[in-house]
């Protein structure tokens, strides 16, 4: 990923440089040649004006002196011809015989009264030349021509230097782009590497693995936060599962041991004849085994309910008053058998967000507990009301109640109040607490304001739609 990011930055910078520097370099080269021709054209016109009278008088030495002085100062070559195109002066060959330039294209134009200029390669000199040929006129008559030529070597060197400067600038820009790409890649990739390391720790069983959330792009920071939340949730779930297995193993061992001992006692008794007294004892052992089986059944049912409460169930919007009314109707016959009344007070018609089937389980556990501890001729008050932006479902009994210390332990798994009747699993309030937390709500235990007993209140979030 780092190499790809660096390559993308370098390619982008190279494209921008190509778009900007190629036209710039070509423009500089063209302008340098144009400037050279403009300078030569100006000098040619000035020189033509200086030698005009001398050419008309055929004063070759004077023309040669002026032309040679210019050639010495500028390193240019000057050729001056008469009207027939025969050279009067050639600074490149000062002592040579006159030559005929009448067939040269630039002299043909100049002797015809038209200026000629351009850049061409000289086959005799084997170099590129920039030249300008202008007519020498007197009273409207062309009396000769002047051609000044310069090698373009200096211009080419200047153009080459410009290309080298642009190339050096490009190299610096590409190096800067590569460095920037490396820095960005390091900034972006390091959180990914930390995420990968954290995921590797989780895969290896180390649930403490976390990713850095304060480095990298905002998207990766958000991803790291989500990963850490997942890891923390997974750590809680695994820890809860381990505690669940340990608690379940401990709680199941006691009734199973009791059953094994009583069954062994029955087996020993069946090997010998029994009298009425022994038969009564065997009957008591059988009833005890049945009681232990029933207790074990309740315990397993509670463990299954607790396991379901810890699973990741989806939230749903439920009519709290309707579900509470149905729960009261279900438990009313059992309450009447125990001589207990259930009083329902629903002052809220709002809906709450609860895990699927969770409110029914919570109410079943609370009503079961309340009926189990409520003395005859007492009442259980069930209420549904709005409070502090939540929907509160309360179940209040008139039983023995719990001390403050006992209330703090009541939601622990397998905890049972001192003096509680046998047969319970100690999981009821644990299940309610798990379901309330999974729904984003809360569970609170408190004392009634005016009498003995216990008030259990479930706080649920109001459904927004």
Description:
This protein is an alpha+beta fold and 465 residues long. 57% of the residues lie in helices and 19% in strands. The chain folds into three domains: 2-157, Beta-Lactamase; 218-311, Signal transduction histidine kinase, dimerisation/phosphotransfer (DHp) domain (Helix Hairpins, Orthogonal Bundle), CATH 1.10.287.130; 313-461, Heat Shock Protein 90, CATH 3.30.565.10. The chain has helices at 2-56, 60-74, 105-111, 153-203, 218-270, 276-310, 320-337, 358-373, 404-409, 428-438, and strands spanning 77-81, 87-90, 116-122, 127-138, 141-151, 315-319, 340-346, 351-355, 378-387, 390-397, 442-446, 454-461. The longest helix is centred in the N-terminal third of the chain and has 55 residues, at 2-56. Keywords: Kinase, Membrane, Phosphoprotein, Transferase, Transmembrane, Transmembrane helix, Two-component regulatory system. Residues 186-239 form the HAMP domain. One of its GO terms (molecular function) is phosphorelay sensor kinase activity. Residues 247-464 form the Histidine kinase domain.
């Amino acid at each position: 990923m780092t190499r790809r990011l660096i390559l993308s930055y370098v390619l982008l910078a190279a494209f921008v440089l190509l778009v900007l520097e190629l036209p710039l370099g070509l423009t500089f080269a063209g302008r340098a040649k144009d400037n050279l021709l403009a300078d030569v054209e100006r000098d040619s016109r000035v020189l033509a004006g200086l030698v005009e009278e001398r050419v008309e008088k055929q004063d070759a030495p004077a023309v040669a002196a002026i032309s040679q002085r210019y050639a010495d100062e500028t390193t240019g070559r000057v050729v001056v011809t008469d009207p027939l195109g025969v050279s009067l002066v050639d600074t490149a060959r000062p002592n040579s015989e006159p030559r005929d330039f009448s067939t040269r294209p630039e002299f043909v134009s100049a002797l015809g009264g038209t200026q000629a200029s351009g850049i061409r390669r000289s086959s005799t000199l084997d170099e590129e030349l920039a030249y300008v040929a202008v007519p020498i006129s007197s009273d409207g008559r062309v009396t000769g021509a002047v051609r000044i030529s310069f090698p373009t070597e200096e211009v080419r060197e200047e153009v080459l230097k410009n290309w080298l400067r642009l190339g050096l600038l490009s190299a610096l820009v590409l190096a800067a782009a590569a460095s920037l790409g490396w820095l960005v890649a390091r900034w972006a990739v390091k959180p990914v590497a930390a995420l990968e390391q954290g995921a590797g720790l989780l895969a290896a069983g180390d649930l403490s693995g976390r990713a850095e959330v304060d480095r990298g792009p905002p998207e990766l920071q958000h991803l790291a936060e989500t990963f850490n939340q997942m890891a923390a949730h997974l750590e809680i779930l695994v820890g809860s599962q381990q505690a669940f297995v340990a608690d379940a193993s401990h709680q199941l061992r006691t009734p199973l041991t009791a059953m094994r001992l009583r069954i062994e006692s029955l087996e020993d008794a069946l090997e010998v004849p029994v009298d009425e007294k022994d038969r009564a004892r065997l009957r008591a052992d059988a009833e005890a085994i049945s009681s232990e089986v029933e207790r074990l059944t309740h315990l397993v049912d509670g463990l299954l309910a607790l396991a379901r409460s810890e699973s990741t169930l989806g939230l749903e919007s439920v009519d709290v008053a309707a579900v509470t009314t149905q729960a009261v109707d279900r438990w009313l016959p059992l309450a009447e058998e125990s001589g207990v009344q259930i009083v329902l007070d629903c002052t809220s018609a709002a809906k709450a967000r609860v895990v699927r089937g969770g409110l029914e389980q919570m109410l079943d556990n609370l009503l079961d507990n309340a009926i189990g501890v409520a003395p005859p001729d007492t009442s259980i008050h069930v209420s549904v009301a709005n409070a502090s932006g939540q929907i509160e479902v309360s179940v209040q009994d008139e039983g023995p109640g719990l001390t403050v210390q006992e209330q703090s332990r009541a939601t622990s798994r397998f905890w049972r109040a001192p003096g509680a009747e046998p047969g319970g699993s100690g999981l009821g309030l644990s299940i309610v607490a798990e379901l309330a937390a999974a729904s984003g709500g809360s569970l609170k235990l408190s004392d009634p304001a005016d009498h003995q007993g216990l008030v259990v209140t479930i706080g649920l979030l109001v459904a927004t739609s």
